[in-house]
Amino acid sequence: METLQYTNGWLNLNEERINEINYFCEDYKHFLNKGKTERQCVALCVKQAEEKGFRPISEFKQLNPGDKVYFVNRKKNVALVVVGKQPISDGIRYVVSHIDSPRLDLKPSPLYEKSELALMRTHYYGGIKKYQWASRPLALHGIVATKSGRNVDIVIGEDPQDPVFTIPDLLPHLDKKVQRERTATEVLKGEELQIIVGSIPMEVNDDKIKDKVKHHILTKLFEKYEISEPDFISAELMLVPAGEARDVGIDGGLLGAYGQDDRICAFTSLEAIFDIAVPEQTAVCFLVDKEEIGSSGSTGLESRYLEYFTGELLIRQLGNQYNDQMMRRCLWQSYALSSDVNAGLNPLFESVHDVQNASKLGYGLVLTKYTGHGGKAGSNDADAEYVAVLRRMFDDKEIKWQSGLLGKVDEGGGGTVAKYLAHYGINTIDAGAALISMHSPFELSSKFDIHELYKAYKVFFIDSIKPTEY
């Protein structure tokens, strides 16, 4: 009689496999270092996709098996498609990840001066522990769209020669009344998330200019980028942790970096779709935005962009035979992995986990049947039959996997994009990696899991699941 027993993936690996894992993770580090925002991720993905033979959908009048196509939505979504042997109307394999991560966004009017220091005000994006962002080097990334029509790309703080930015915390000698009596969520309040951007006053002969440090900063920005203070209103500028992804631990088995939720799944699904030829069913790697704030907006999965590009695929294969019911039928017969991370068992805080149902670093892909909070609120709850199909698929290909839940029942919870995929009737389950310190400026993953994710997504794209099986 079979019993449930998961084992650590590092056990019994030969040197060749370990080298393969480490080599793969060097590429992953590069992806994390160069793609710290969703726009940067999309640009990086398109560049790599074109090198692999993908072409924009506008270049295709008719789609045939093996065609490699990509879509870009407002520079924040990208969908990569490899057309399969079966008709697209019979269903699609979607692997969907998000490429936005918690961060600090500059406010539309951010710059001011106080105590002869220039500061900028921010608004945090996504679920963060605010105190984790103080007294650490931060880099500024994003674009400024000027009234004249120029888009100015800005990255300050990543080159070793660049200045960085920081939020000044309060020294322990003076924090007794101001901070120590606050709850953890208010050790640093939202309006206190302000970065120092300058300290040198500019000598000016105009008595009307009182804030000489602020004036100096505006002068510097205009000299280098030709942007002025009103241009911040039409900008997307964000603060992220400065620095590169690093190996963690003497044995180097872990990887630490900002933004692994959820770029760990984005990178591995990209590599998987790059490495397939002509699948049975059409394969789609879809990278989305805005998951950290509820998948809202025109670039989040709550939008209808998935319908938009799926419809384009169907029209280019079916021509005049296409109708809306074919779209609905296609989606209802499709399969998806909502590729998002799970809370890995934290050895310092095991009490918040149901240890028997917690995922662990180094144990492979995590299948999360449901997320949500309270009584599974806001969750997709994967069908038992679909879970069984995936178990068989991964076991047959010797893919290491485990099940996981997001903590104890009433401890908290969270959601993913799964419910937005299931809305269309797509068979969906959450499938990603376990992370420790999720949503922090330095998240931890296992190198073994990273490579195993890639293998699992590749198998999912090419395996011959048939609708009649489920």
How would you summarize what this structure contains?
This protein is an alpha/beta fold. The protein is 26% helix and 24% strand. It has 2 domains: 15-101 and 258-469, 3-Layer(aba) Sandwich (Aminopeptidase); 103-241, Aminopeptidase i, Domain 2.
Structure description:
With 470 residues, the protein is α/β, with parallel strands linked by helices. It has 2 domains: 15-101 and 258-469, Aminopeptidase; 103-241, Aminopeptidase i, Domain 2 (Roll). It is built from 9 helices and 22 strands. It has helices at 15-34, 38-51, 212-225, 260-274, 305-318, 324-332, 384-396, 418-422, 447-462; strands at residues 55-56, 68-73, 77-82, 92-98, 103-114, 117-125, 138-145, 151-156, 194-198, 235-241, 246-248, 254-257, 282-288, 335-338, 342-343, 365-368, 372-373, 401-403, 413-414, 427-432, 434-435, 443-446. The strands form 5 sheets. A 9-stranded mixed beta sheet has the order 1-2-3-13-4-14-20-16-18, sandwiched between helices. Strand 11 (246-248) and strand 12 (254-257) form a beta hairpin. Helix 1 (15-34) crosses helix 9 (447-462). It is globular. The two termini are 25 Å apart. The model has no long low-confidence stretch (mean pLDDT 94).
- Compute the separation of the termini in Å: 25 Å
Q: Spans with pLDDT under 50 lasting ≥5 residues?
A: none
Q: What portion of residues belong to β-strands? A: 15-25%
Shape: globular
Strand order of the largest sheet: 1-2-3-13-4-14-20-16-18
Oligomer status: single chain
CATH-derived architecture of the largest domain: 3-Layer(aba) Sandwich
Helical coverage, percent range: 25-40%
Annotation field: number of helices: 9
**Major sheet size, sense and barrel closure:** 9 strands, mixed
GO cellular component, one term: cytoplasm
Family: Belongs to the peptidase M18 family.
Organism: Photobacterium profundum (strain SS9)
Cofactor: Zn(2+)
